[in-house]
Amino acid sequence: MQANMVTAINNALELGMRSDENIVLLGEDIGKDGGVFRVTEGLLDKFGEQRVMDTPLAESGILGASVGMALAGLHPVPEIQFAGFMFLGFGQLVNHAARYRSRTRSSFPVPMVVRTPVSGGIRTLEHHSESPEAYYSHMGGLIVVEPSTPYDAKGLMLRAMKMNDPVVFLEPTKLYRLFKQDIPEDAYEVEIGKADITRKGEALTVISYGTMMPIVKDVVAKKGVDAEIIDLRTINPLDEKTILESAKKTGRVVIVHEASLSFGVGAEVAARIAEKAIFELDAPIVRVASPSLPYPFPGYEKYYLPNAMKISQAIDRVMEA
Amino acid sequence: MEQRAFEGEIEYIQVMDETGNVDQSLFPKDLDDQKILEMYKYMLFARANDAKTLSLQRQGRAVTYAPLLGEEATQIGSAYAMRKQDIFVPNFRQHGVFLMRGLPLEWMYLYWRGYEEQLPKDVNGEAIIVPVATQMPHAVGMAYAQTYKKKDAVVIVYVGDGGTSEGDFYEALNFAGVWKVPLVVIIENNQWAISLPRGKQSAAKTLAQKAFAAGIGGVQVDGNDVIAVYKATKDAIDKAKTGPTVVECVTYRLGMHTTADDPTKYRPDAEVEIWERRDPLARVKAYLVRKGLWNDQMEKETSEQQSKEIDDAVERAEQFKEDPRSIFTNVYSFVPQTLQDELDDAEKNNFWQEGGK
Ligand SMILES: Cc1ncc(C[n+]2csc(CCOP(=O)(O)OP(=O)(O)O)c2C)c(N)n1
Ligand SMILES: [Mg+2]
């Protein structure tokens, strides 16, 4: 089937719900309205109000109730309308979803998949463009995934709905409808914790994920440089093996993400390479990211987001070193 | 033993009905026809502004916008009751309140073009806040500070029907009750929170009664009746020294939630038509016309003059040239060296030259 990321996730949710009646969806405007991005379109009609719930406007309530449902044998898939509003339920996620299993030495796992749109570039109001993957990964206890293609989105979602863990499923709004792919009609899974080498190369390694993936691919193609491109897909746990193998092979690494530079995923990836492969590098690792400041209002976002020129210069820098 | 542990009731107030008839026994003593006329002009102005921003958005000259259409009486009536020194705390739909408080139109057009710039201090209003209801605890803290600094100012905070479901709403009311701060909470109940109707937002019969749980008073008014809204807000401000009040204004969101929303997906036209007949402007106009204080010619002239003001403001806003450096220099009270390095890097390497492509 031809699918963009919206229809791919919608399809995954439907298949998941058909195969497991413990899966329920809840969130603001996900039912009748089909979600503000239409990801849950049609699911209310197909599964009814008991399994697709339009909730009151309360993020802590949505996430806390989901934790409770998971503890009592359901497998909730809550939606938080935008990642910027997930912070209102941050405590439920990091204090409870992330911790219940270890708090009870695995007597109480918390199987749930928290879906939320992330990242910017769509010229909208404050708190609609955050890239919060590092916050959720830092804790330990939460699995964090972020697809950049419809194929991966469907496969990762189907996998996430089968795991006995809390998964934070980040959906880059910019990529929701950016392009279509031909994907299998039936259920399939994409492994969580496994990065994807989207291009084999020898000259350098470019590690990225989410909104930056299409730009990275484009820059590499335009420059004609023999880069190996890695799409992390899962932020936590990191696929360190794939990262290290590539870094050792090429000896040059650029890490690209939309989230701001300081204390981000790039720092984690760079640190692991530095710890375990520094003597095999030919150049210092370079990170490309948004500046270390809050996501600006839309008039300024073009000065904030990493663009092709910034990525291109970074590649030149590691190649010339 | 059995006895009643709590008693409370919520009054509903309407002063001017849908045809413009006034219940004299409820008519506020400090209001007169000139003031009603003034409020009416502001309501017209708010509506004209709203239509303009909406049309700019449709032409790609504004970002996602949340229209106030239908909620003019709630906003203008409450704002008219504020004194100069009072402070208002909006959520994101209170353009009419900003207008009445004298925020330069140009600022609003800048904001909705995508530029947050400095807020003029004398407006005594806080920033537009997008995360629903998170402004509520701020308002309580600000009200506390008024008492602490011995200022004769009341804080008026706005929140939607949807917002009353958030934890921050309840936490704020509870603090306000315990601290007895000079606070007025205006619940702008426009019946919808995006696609969720009021009936699914809360099982409570009124939203005003949520005040009881915090030990404070609440009242419900016809939010399309500018006089009732004025009266309830004024009364609440007058007694704010003795503690907070919740004023639930029952109004209706006639338009879409925001320009990104399609309400035909979730609500019947028939419901909208009922509320169109309860238009907050029409009844005031009927009243003023009957009194011989207003006519179509005056309305035409007022609208023309307001349009001109609006167009001038839009023009000024569109001449604004942003300074990318400002997103780096307004993060802290100083610019840390590491951030300065990021700024220098962007400038030196021309990252901005592409303009984000
Ligand atoms: C904390 C939070 N969650 C979700 C949203 C997305 N959102 C924006 S407005 C809105 C509905 C708000 O309803 P209400 O409080 O009734 O105000 P209204 O829009 O009707 O003025 C939602 C869910 C948000 N802005 N903030
Ligand atoms: Mg509402």
Concise description?
The complex is a heterodimer of chains A (321) and B (357). Chain A has 321 residues and is an alpha/beta fold.
Beta strand % of chain A? 15-25%
What's the mean pLDDT score of chain B?
96
CATH topology call of the largest domain in chain B:
Rossmann fold
CATH class of the largest domain in chain A: Alpha Beta
Question: How would you characterize this protein structure?
Answer:
- The complex is a heterodimer of chains A (321) and B (357).
- Chain A contains 12 helices and 14 strands.
- Chain A has helices at 5-19, 43-47, 59-71, 90-97, 100-103, 133-139, 150-160, 212-223, 240-250, 265-277, 301-304, 308-320; strands at residues 2-3, 23-27, 52-54, 75-79, 112-118, 143-145, 166-172, 181-182, 196-199, 204-208, 227-231, 234-236, 253-260, 286-290.
- A 5-stranded mixed beta sheet of chain A has the order 9-11-10-13-14, with helices on both faces.
- Chain A is globular.
- The model of chain A has no long low-confidence stretch (mean pLDDT 98).
- Chain B has 2 domains: 11-322, Rossmann fold (3-Layer(aba) Sandwich), CATH 3.40.50.970; 326-357, no CATH class.
- Chain B is built from 14 helices and 8 strands.
- In chain B, strand 3 (155-160), helix 6 and strand 4 form a beta-alpha-beta unit.
- In chain B, helix 2 (72-81) runs parallel beside helix 9.
- Chain B is globular, with a radius of gyration of 22 Å.
- The interface between A and B is large, with 45 and 49 residues.
